Amino acid sequence: EAARMARFVLHNCDWGALATLSAQSGLRGRPFANIFSLSDGPPGSRGGSGVPYLYLTDMEISVQDLEINSNASLTVSLAQTPYCKKHRYDPQNPLCAHIIFCGSVVKVNDSEVGLAKKALFSRHPEMESWPKDHNWFFAKFNITNIWVLDYFGGLKIVTPEEYYNVKP
């Protein structure tokens, strides 16, 4: 059920740690992680699309990194939900499931803007009032690799096909 767990964790998380390869002076080529709000769809038990959508601006340092190299990793963890605290699981405990996605971040095309907007603004309504002069745009994380840590014994590998084909 690793693919289902990956979909569950992403859908129940509102933010993730996005790691890029820095293009910044003094850090060039080094890993650089930053927190971003995300959503794969409106909250609820119906599950989302599985696509991590982001609302970005070129003014953000990690976005500047992505303009040079769009490859990144994205980690989301149930540690941000009440689940792990309720069970007294430390965020590093494998029972406090987390998912690591590798892939790239790309702007969504015009046909996908409506989906991304609904997904993000339903979870992060504040975004609608962010300054227009920051030139915000909708992006998505194109998933190429998925690792699931949800139990003892090491990571489980899930293919994007398994991930997108499972019913959340």
TrEMBL record:
One of its GO terms (cellular component) is cytoplasm. Keywords: Glycoprotein, Secreted, Signal. Residues 1-165 form the CREG-like beta-barrel domain. It is found in: Secreted. Belongs to the CREG family. This is Protein CREG1.
